[in-house]
Amino acid sequence: MKKYYITTPIYYVNDLPHIGHVFTTVLADYIARSKRNLGYDVYFLTGTDEHGQKAEKTAKQTGITPQELADRVVENYYKLWKQLNISYSDFIRTSESRHKKGAAEFFRIVHHNGDIYKGFYEGWYCVPCELILPESTKEEEACPNCGRIAEKKIKEESYFFRLSNYQERLLEYYRSHPGCIKPESRYNEVMRFVESGLRDLSVSRVSITWGVPVPGDPSHIIYVWFDALSNYITALGWSDNDALFKQYWPANIHLVGKDIVRFHCVYWPAFLMSAGIALPETIFGHGWWMMHSAKMSKTLGNVLKPEPLLKMLGSDPVRYFLLREAPLDTDSEISLESIIGRLNADLANDYGNLVSRTFQMIHKYFGGSLNKKPALDTAENSIINAFYSLKNQMDDYCTNLNLAEIFRQTWNIIYLLNKYIDEKQPWAKFKSPDNRDEVEGILYFICDFIRILSILLYPAMPESSTKLMDIFGIKPEEVTLEKTEYGQLPLGVQVPKSLILFPRLDIKEVLKQYEIE
RNA sequence: UGCGGGGUAGAGCAGUCUGGUAGCUCGUUGGGCUCAUAACCCAAAGGACAUCGGUUCGAAUCCGAUCCCCGCUACCA
Q1: Where in this chain does the record put each Methionyl-tRNA synthetase anticodon-binding domain (predicted)?
Q2: In chain A, which residues have pLDDT < 50?
């Protein structure tokens, strides 16, 4: 069985989950479910990054330990991922001992291989923020956190990773693996960046205590990226109980936001090279959701909160919108208006209404179940061919995250089915008793395609697909797209008289309700 | 400053590599249908393809210049 290992970043517990976290995770879930649907043995990892200075500071201010803070915040993620039906295989927390053990071992090996040395970390220090600013040649430096000019320079002992030694090996690797960073624009960015020269990287801090101690020198704590990135292998039990590691590593895809592309595409491969571990196949850096042309931020107050959206719209519609309008190459605008517009057009009008009108005719004309299959002619065959053509390309589209094409073709099938009904006019044909067999066949054809759609759309909208599958007497875990063909709907299945899968949404109502939430 | 991406109908995008009647979704307008969630189906309107110049029988597409917009430019999840 072909394996597929997919990851999201681990999210920092200092923040509450926002639409960006939701997007990355839903995207990963969609790919994971799609690959399962295609017969892959999928391992899907997500989790939380719980260490570091900010978490330590927030905990202090709140009067609790960092561990308590992490335990508290991680609940928000558990809850949200449950609401969104995220089908992760494992959820790693960097404060778990399995991770701490692995991260320390990772550090030890890289150190042993001669790529870590002790030196001094120098930088401007912003007193109010208690933050060391990135090293800079400038005389003055404004703090990225508060904007004030930092007043004093600080110098502290730190371990460094010899990133500078990896410039050529990284470039060689990128050149020989053109698909390792996607989309292409990110690949180019990373290439240019590495070509411009690499400096060694500080990988430890003495100023913090919340984290993984450096092996053999516990006054140092392993600093952010070295700790965080290693979760992708520690979660698989690397260096310890490594059955999962052997089975799933290297990752087929690390899904990340564009803000952390560099760390995944430069630092991570260099760390892995040093440790003698295989490199991930693809790192995909997607864009951001923007509101009013600005990155969402609490300061700007243009945050779209996930919880009220889920409450008002439900999990499937939120998932569908994010996937359908996914900002993969560039950033993308999001607004309640655009969400409602998309959901009404695609889900209520096209897909939901197709199901509704079909089921109602089956009831009106045949008491709720069908017992005849149609003879297939050009009209039916062209729809069947549209489906097989999509099915054959599905794996490729998923690997390359070509979601736009998947949804375009899926909705083309829905359009063809609606058109098929209009052209066949079952309501007119039914008036003559001679045509009743034909009408039954027409309805069977559509109904079987609703079954196919439920399987095709299961990775995007598991809840509504499960609703349909229940009606057809099939189980999600037993049915895959891989094995689905036209004509597998058993005769005699009883469908409900009325089924509104996706109610039409009123923009004014939604806006009003969002305000209340 | 350097590197990269982009400017196509009211909005959002495809088409540019491999020149030859400008396409998709939403919106607008008219029509059809009545099985359906005021839905669905058909049709129409709407574009000097950023600007200027060049190559060519012919350019959104190739070449040059100009003007705008956006991304990346290291320790920040």
Answers
A1: 404-502
A2: 136-138, 293, 300
How far in angstroms lies nucleotide B59's C1' from the CA of residue A122? 56
B71 C1' closest Cα residue: A330
Query: How confident is the model at residue A137, as a pLDDT?
Result: 42
Tokens for A201, please give them.
């990287």
Nucleotide nearest A330, CA–C1', reads B71
What distance in Å separates the CA atoms of residue A440 and residue A153, rounded to the nearest whole number? 81
Task: Give the domain range for residue A44.
Answer: 3-286
Residue A422 identity = D
The answer on A354 and A278 residing in a single domain is no
Residue A445 CA to residue A437 CA, distance in Å, equals 12
- In eight-state DSSP terms, residue A512 is H
**What are the structure tokens assigned to A431, written together?**
């008036």
**What contacts 24+ positions apart, CB below 8 Å, involve A421-430?**
A421/A354, A421/A357, A421/A358, A421/A446, A423/A379, A424/A379, A426/A361, A426/A365, A427/A361, A430/A365
- The domain tally of chain A equals 2
pTM metric for this prediction: 0.93
Quote ipTM for the complex: 0.88
Query: Is residue A113 within 8 Å of A162, Cβ to Cβ?
Result: no
Residues A261 and A342 in one domain: no
Within a domain: residue A494?
no
**Which nucleotide's C1' is closest to A501 (Cα)?**
B37
Tokens describing residue A458: 């299961």
